[in-house]
């Protein structure tokens, strides 16, 4: 193994690494994939929602044997204050289609399946192997890796860094900076097990139908963050995350937030009587377009979370990971077919191909959103949710107050809290960042 | 912190699977007299509560329950308060569900 040379080494076996390794291996490249976990998936954490379209591009018939949990027919968005939530729910029977668009998955199980497909495509997958260092040539180009398992070096024409949001290799080698605390969130999650009929009754589901809740508001105590409740077949994934920059200065703990979210009157009945079987924590890239690092260089490319590919507004990450891994592989395959070397100049093709995809187009669209959410977190995650709750309650509580007065009171509470100018400016900035 | 519900993180970590690499801590705190504000923030920010104050008011780390999220690395690696590496291959947290 030590003296063997590979066409490509993929570091990491998450969504991006698996997509890259699969695409290269099935097109005849000699691929080595290295994973530090006991098995592919053992270090990976996600909510998790799988977007079918991006997986179909890699494994068209994945529905035949992939471990899928529930087909999502309902999405709920909740704006929460301490005792209430204002919801926007969308449910449609159209989602009960022949080839459903979104599923919940459990990552450890899904990643094992995905890894099997990578092996079947012909890649060599080596687990329990931590890559400790990149091997560089005299010009700084990457020519291979060193691991903690084997003496010596393993060489390849190109190294695909799919090392995740907390990837050390690229940062240590100076290929990109360590993420800054305002550009990554810490999320904690628990797996709550319940009989499947209980889950189906509580969420109004039949068979393999699923529902997910994305929630924001005072549950994060004015910090930039979100919570979620996802239905799987026999368990509910429930979690909450906030920017690390906020945790650094706040008096809150991640598990304290999680506990308060679980005890919220809108959430507690959904998980009542459940058995918790895992508590996990993971980082989420939240910096968006402006936090994307250099994506390629001589002998290397970076894909997935390691490259900050996450659409925080739409809660999409794994599909950007899969797509960036696939596109990096396709760029490498194209260079090989043209017999062009893996220089920085040639690998710029990866960035150009990515620019043409939804990955870059979506991230670019929301390029100003992360900064707005972070600098205005008190307003967006504390003040407005409280005001909305008050306004909704005023609207619904029938107490003899004339409606004209109620509307005036509601409007006044917004103006008092944020001033006319503040309201206008918040709306203006939000719309501008959204466009 | 006033209305913080009581939470025992140790109980949560008990659900998890770990393979601890005894004697090879993957996180080290730099010896210090008085901890920096960043280092102190880890007492609350670490989701596994790996960081504790000792009797001398210094921050210590016990990595057995670490979920390898990297929060402490993001906050404290740059100023040199801590050193962060991955555990050896196959060691550390092993998520059953993820």
Structural account:
The complex is a heterodimer of chains A (435) and B (98). Chain A has 435 residues and is an alpha/beta fold. In chain A, strands 1, 2, 7, 8, 9, 10, 16 and 17 form an eight-stranded mixed β-sheet that branches. A seven-stranded mixed β-sheet of chain A has the order 5-4-12-13-14-11-15. Chain A contains 14 helices and 17 strands. In chain A, strand 4 (71-80) and strand 5 form a beta hairpin. Chain A is 37% helix and 25% strand. Chain B is an alpha+beta fold. Chain B has a domain at 27-93: Alpha-Beta Plaits, CATH 3.30.70. Chain B is built from three helices and six strands. In chain B, the strands form three sheets. Chain B has a two-stranded antiparallel ribbon. The longest helix of chain B has 9 residues, at 37-45. Chain B is globular, with a radius of gyration of 14 Å. At the A-B interface, helix 3, strand 11, helix 6, helix 7 and strand 15 of A face helix 1, helix 2, helix 3 and strand 6 of B.
**Percentage of β-strand residues of chain A:** 15-25%
* Interface with most residues: A-B, 58 and 41 residues
Give the class of chain A from helix and strand content and strand pairing. Answer: alpha/beta
Span between N and C termini of chain A? 51 Å
Poorly predicted tracts of residues of chain A: none
- In CATH, the architecture of one domain in chain B is 2-Layer Sandwich
Coarse structural class of chain B: alpha+beta
Tell me how many strands of chain B there are.
Answer: 6
